Fold these 4 entries.
Entry 1:
Amino acid sequence: MSESKCPYAQSNVAGGGPKNRDWWPELLRLDILRQNGVASDPFGADFDYAKEFKSLDYNALKADLTALMTDSQDWWPADFGHYGGLFIRMAWHSAGTYRVFDGRGGGGQGQQRFAPLSSWPDNGNLDKARRLLWPIKQKYGSKISWADLMILAGNVALESMGFKTFGFAGGRADTWEADESVYWGSETSFFPEGRDKRFASGPSLEKKYGKEHAQSLEKPLGATNMGLIYVDPRGPNANADPVAAAHDIREAFGRMAMNDEETVALIAGGHTLGKTHGAAPDSHVGPEPEGASIEQNGLGWKNSYKSGKGADAITSGLEVIWTKTPTWWSNNFFEYLFGYEWELVEGPGGAPQFVAKNAENIIPDAFDKSKKHPPRMLVTDIALRADPEYEKISRRFLKNPDQFNDAFARAWFKLTHRDMGPRILYLGPEVPKEELLWQDPIPAINHLLVDGNDILSLKREILNSGLSISKLVSVAWASASTFRGSDKRGGANGGHIRLSPQKDWEVNNPQQLAEVLSVLERIQTSFNESQTTGKRISLADLIVLAGSAAVESAANAAGVRAVVPFIPGRADATQEQTDVEQFNYLQPIADGFRNYGKSSGRVKQEQTLVDRAHLLKLSAPELTVLIGGLRAINTNFDGSSHGILTSRPGVLTNDFFVNLLDMSTEWKAVDDSKDLFEGTDRKSGAKKWTATRFDLIFSSQPELRALAEVYASAGGQQKLVTDFVAAWAKVMNLDRFDLA
Ligand code: HEB
């Protein structure tokens, strides 16, 4: 491999030189399963951020933040003497990377401190915003995370600019390294290059970024360009077309769970305050923080134009001030949007932007009191008038500022809290009382919980109900495994598996699911009706209990005694509490644990498996033992025998590993996709097994093979049961934030 051919063979660790990831970029990597381990956390495993946050003097912190807003620093002077616009943009860009399909991104981990986000072109000069916050972060230490501080700074900015927010919740614990689990797109260059790679090609592309084009944005991406939070402010590929921009906005904001009204409110609200920065062409701007030299102390985008700051600052290269009071909340955005006709012009760097026609110079300058400007807008701002649906909403907001204010307050709260999980995780004195549908509410428990004896008798009843071990385990897995650590949605609590849309997902085998649920409902009803003390069991609990009883029984059948811990306390949500569209985003494209899903051109089955394991917060050993155990128990979504490498399906044996590593079997791909394989007896040629990539990866990827060997070796049967039970219980309880 010559250096010119392999630009990546420069890994800057351990003396440099190519590493495995350089030599074999295709090798399945498990790193994301080890991410955020104790080795990277200075506070260790016992650190309890919630406890720290509760000891914070919240009001003092807010007062310090408020004072900071107008405490202009010479090294980065505040526009109009107020940092509010900058901090709002920082908070919005922190939260705005969230996307519905995998729940990744978002402001929950303070990831803006790390690459790639720290250095995305769209995050230009937000390094300054975070650096301005440093003295406050330093003062409050571990009582306030960067993740919380960045969002709170946005809230305080709004409040100090005359806006009444909907509230604030703390609780975002920091991480200490870059989150490498996020697929940000396959482009190898940042904005402004490479937009179209993430859009399906075809005739729609030629239609100049019309509707179809925008709608074919690759899943799970949330932005139209690599390195942008959402969309190109100049319209798709700088085409200056506000209608096309609207299609992109709708698609990108939809990926963040925002509807049209929320989208209009957010954009108009955000651009009611602050300004853009484009004093001169960006040829004056140096490398982003990750690419900058060491003596810049982590800052980037060093600007050689005149003073390089204040009036000479260059961020987006656009030069727009939207409103007459850029440091005070108003309805100016809509008043100007409809009060003027707009003319397309070139900004200082040559980028398209709009200026109000025949307008007087009514807009203040950020640094020179004697100067005034005409109203200006970005192409994406004009989209709020050019798109017929957005226009209706914008005109309503123009006439009804109260509705605008309320919509922005709610949308801002949703934007900044969307990835925090259930309300039980919200901390602090400003948590709103109102319960919101997007929080996936689950009713409070108002019954007595079952105890030891009830649990024993319920288990007996379940195991005598005629339902197979495989079915019971499948349904419990289906219920709990929707959980994702990314945005803390999903999981067994709420019993959503019995509701639309989950009950109809292909991966859940709807027919089998309905059969199991009807039996469990019968058991639930008869138990609850027979109680005289007010004791009840929810179906959500019973589904987990049934799976756990089945796991115990499967272990017993393998000759190993096992007790699966069960903690009651889950409640059943109603259909009305369940946002069907938003729950559908939890639907797995692939779930290797149930042998569901195919390789795509970009992603192979085994990659989806690691992705899912990451969302389930599993380590590589946990992933391995769960696959081995679930295959032994026979839980493929469609009842197929792929990977069921055992003659005793339904028994919790280590057969999967023993047979997978058995050299008497020879494996061959049987389909062109290379997702399905057949194992034959090396000598006789007799057909023995079928398996998928999800299965064979445990014999081929060296780290997974090493783990598989553990469970196939002497003592492996006992260890498999012990480890499987622990990993199973972990998955069942992933969403039990009430237990912590
Ligand atoms: Fe924005 C700014 C774009 C949305 C808020 N923004 C800005 C800028 C741009 C933009 C380009 C400039 C930067 C500089 O500095 O230069 N946006 C944009 C787009 C969108 C948006 C494209 C989509 C359509 N925003 C938004 C939202 C919000 C915002 C949603 C919130 C809510 N922004 C903002 C602010 C600002 C901005 C506040 C200002 C900043 C300062 O002042 O610094």
Note: The pocket of heme B/C is lined by residues 79, 85-86, 88-89, 92, 230-231, 233, 249, 266-267, 269-271, 273-277, 315-316, 318, 378, 380 (CB under 6 Å).
Entry 2:
Amino acid sequence: MTHQAAEVAKRRTFAIISHPDAGKTTITEKLLLMGKAIAVAGTVKSRKSDRHATSDWMEMEKQRGISITTSVMQFPYRDHMVNLLDTPGHEDFSEDTYRTLTAVDSALMVLDGGKGVEPRTIALMDVCRLRDTPIVSFINKLDRDIRDPIELLDEIEAVLKIKAAPITWPIGCYRDFKGVYHLADDYIIVYTAGHGHERTETKIIEKLDSDEARAHLGDEYDRFVDQLELVQGACHEFNQQEFLDGQLTPVFFGTALGNFGVDHVLDAVVDWAPKPLARVANERTVEPVEDKFTGFVFKIQANMDPKHRDRIAFMRICSGKYEKGMKMRHVRTGKDVRIGDALTFFSSEREQLEEAFAGDIIGLHNHGTIQIGDTFTEGEALGFTGIPHFAPELFRRVRLRDPLKSKQLRQGLQQLAEEGATQVFFPERSNDIILGAVGVLQFDVVASRLKEEYKVECSYEPITVYSARWIDCSDKKKLEEFSNKAVENLAIDGGGHLTYLAPTRVNLALMEERWPDVKFRATREHH
Ligand code: G4P
């Protein structure tokens, strides 16, 4: 195996999907503890600010330094290199989250054992299913009272439409939580409370049918053995191929707070989850072990210092190798750029890496030229696909406080739209500016960033738009006819695309029926 192929094979790139409060932050911390990226848990600043009311957003902005370095975390585990991508924690399901999930090869689903499958879990699983992303599951908070584990697995299967294969099975919960039993390999991993903040030795009891196991389970022993019979009869067995196809999820139990079980899921990611996968571009499929460098930008984030308007573009490497100082072609602009100061996210006592491979994420300093979805290569004209915009569901008309600032407003909105913070529409028939968002928090974020970064104050007015659809039509004449008829509801979006702003659901349905040659698209690929 070449050095490059070996490096690719070592990599695992994944994200955590969960409903707020299920324990994502706590698990992230424990993962970093295991990757020796931090010595003691509790040192990672919680990203709870995301959850606060919108008035706290400026405070959030001040803390961006933290969220930037934690939005991608790279650490070694066993003989592997793990890239953990943080999915944004906004209250609203955001496009950013979706795009982050396009940059991973697998995901870790975390459920609160007391609650089970929650709304955000469902939304995120829907996104994962679009690409059949393999999912490892972790049922958290076993140190509390949890729901019947069998019922939880049934819920995963029924609601999320994925087979659930328990790998471990919990022995009690809350004060009686005694650890987990490994179903296939017949051993108990013993839980001892009070070691949540450090790496500890794992205590194992070989074989359930042993005196030691009987002593450990005490009065619960017989009931547990009975339950296991039921579980083994009723549950799916783990199957590697079904897991890789996104049809089956291995399920683990534990407590992130108690630092128990998180290592089992990390082992599962390393042992079972795929190494960096091939990526589809418009022109061809790109293999991770190809010599030449390729990558795509899936996220742009404002930097710590809003005054400089410096932003970081996060790029997933799809093939080849990044080396400090290398030259890359920015395919959309056709320009060659030398990249000497890309950020890598190796978060350990060891030194920063100077090279990166497929599966890794690097951060490029962006002064407004890089857009989400952009592809970089060593010269080949490639465009990676699958990083779409979504039709927004919420709309506001922007009202400018100082009319003389309309140029700054347009410029600001254009840039924020490029970054993916909002979508902007310019109606054909008026001078209005309409903002579209997938989640309501986005509007406040945009207003406060316009004020801080562009010195423009604006407010919002309600507007009756039900949804937006990107218009596509190969028949020029039909398109013209349609454009004339529908002009009142047509707009150009921030990327220059013709968009239909439907006032109501009924109107949209009618228009789609009336204009069968016109495509009303709910998603749009970048470029
Ligand atoms: P999130 O990022 O998914 O939103 O969840 P986070 O890790 O912040 O966890 C949400 C709450 O659940 C936190 O409590 C956290 O301490 C708690 N938690 C996480 N894992 C476990 C677990 O295994 N057992 C128990 N009992 N609690 C767990 P909080 O009170 O909201 O915050 P904090 O003030 O304790 O940090």
Note: Residues 18, 20-26, 140-141, 143-144, 255-258 surround guanosine-5',3'-tetraphosphate (CB under 6 Å).
Entry 3:
Amino acid sequence: EHNGGHLSTRLKGLDDALCGGIPFGVLTELVGPAGIGKTQFCLKLALLASLPEAYGGLDGRVIYIDVESKFSSRRMIEIGSKSFPEIFHKKGMAQEMAGRILVMRPTSLSEFTESLQQLKISLLQNQVKLLIIDSMAALVAGEQGQGAPRQHLLGWHISFIKSLAEFSRIPIVVTNQVRSQIRDEACQYSFQVQHREKALHEHTEYDSHLVAALGIHWAHAVTIRLVLDSKSGKRFIKLAKSPISPPLAFAFNITSSGISL
Ligand code: ATP
Ligand code: MG
């Protein structure tokens, strides 16, 4: 159970399925192949968390752990000015919104680990309303070791990140790149619920490479998993794991105003 409160994604069907949006106090994972839109989704969430409450935002700061240097404040402002022209036409607003995003670029897992303790303090002191890690897999990719020792090391990080969410009561959104999951039989998901039991066994379709990289402990630590993928040139986002919803999928587009259903 999370602590109540959600960050609306402004994607109507998804917000409805999630009872309001990305929940506070737990981990939400965005997974999908390269170029599908995970970072675009994160940019939109960062923007939404920093927007004034009058516009449905959280009026807060955002800590954005940008592991692969893919964060773009220019793109975030483009999304903002197209989606909320009435806010962004005000003088200095774009700079103010961009200034609310604290971008960190750790170059190794150990550097990230060192910043975690500081992060814990910052989260409480600085009106931080969202933490994004884009991406977790990239963060651990350079680490030595395999199998049990590596998973033991990661286990500590995973527990720490999860506890950060619980104690700060903010949403933590983590991305991970996986190969496309589309196989022919996967079409049975298409835009409706057909196999309720799949929800219970969602981890069995979890990309085996990611499980190898981050371990099954990670798969279980995540409360919400959104899988982004494409089929026949159409992008869709699937709510693959949720304590409150069956698996559901929604077609989405990426335009100059960002991700939309
Ligand atoms: P990776 O795993 O490599 O980080 P990703 O899932 O984070 O990939 P994104 O960078 O979020 O992928 O998405 C890239 C896609 O976003 C591109 O395919 C591009 O089509 C789309 N995109 C980016 N900017 C715009 C824009 N201004 N207008 C329309 N589409 C855009
Ligand atoms: Mg990305």
Note: The chain is about 40% helix and 25% strand.
Entry 4:
Amino acid sequence: DFSNVGFVGLGNMGGFMAKNLLKKGYKLTVFDINKTAIDNVVSAGAKSAQSVAEVSQNSEVIVTMLPMNQHVLDTYTGKDGIISSAKKGTFLVDSSTIDPSVSQTVFKAAQKQGLRFVDGPVSGGVIGAKNGTLTFMVGGSKEDYEASKTFLEGMGSRAVHCGDTGMGQVAKICNNMLLAISMIGVSEALSLGEKLGLDPKILTDIVNTSTGRCWSSEVNNPVPGISPTVPSSNDYAGGFGTSLIAKDLGLAQAAATRAKSPIALGSLSHQIYRTMEAHGLGGKDFSVVYPFIRGENVN
Ligand code: NAD
């Protein structure tokens, strides 16, 4: 039974995800270390808890949407964390983007206490969280995936089973590494063309009907003015922050090091986005790499 839901981590993503569950009729008990984040969801009908343990006592299923590895470890395996306080049989879903090996650690600890756990990172960004159109990449047993599918689709439009525990995270970080690389590639190509005298609009049109076509050229073009509604046409505001993609590349780097899998371009992209962050561009959409490599200032 998934009618009593606990939700921990009510930030940019979690706040909207929790509200969508409320709209679907689930009863929510919520916690965040930030009181304002709790108030935001309580005003939409959730009950607030004073601690993670209080969330556990009231819930049959608990969703967590936290920033990074350490927050997830603390919330699950820390003193008075979810694993020591949840009722036997509670279903746990972590939707944070973290290291797959951390998901595996949490899963093992959960299993020992008779709890069920899947990793379910998401794609679709804050807009997808708001509109309920997220895709969940689920790592866990087939039974646990089947058991959670309808519930997850209450916060999104799709839940895909990627394999065992951690494979949701693997899918997420590999996709984002490719995206990070392709955005730099598109920016270099359009910038080179422009320096050689070719209008980036014409080159984009050629690329998008040729073999260089990808999301970064077609949907989120980094050159201002080509697509009027994307971040590049709005001073690179909104979209997917440079510091968030840099964080995901750090996860890919750590996993690749352990797997002894070479990611020459992934590593290089990581350093490029980190350098952009050091130049104050962390909050801008990652397509800001286009003016950055051209040495142009961004507002
Ligand atoms: P956020 O920083 O806006 O929200 C995180 C929330 O967790 C905050 O409200 C914070 O107060 C809370 N928190 C931190 N430590 C806590 C603790 N110990 N106990 C309780 N609450 C705690 O982050 P976000 O943008 O919502 O992202 C969350 C996760 O989703 C990240 O892993 C991110 O990489 C991933 N993600 C984000 C996006 C996006 O576009 N923002 C898209 C896909 C995936």
Note: The beta strands are 4-8, 27-31, 47-48, 61-64, 91-94, 116-119, 122-123, 134-139, 156-163.
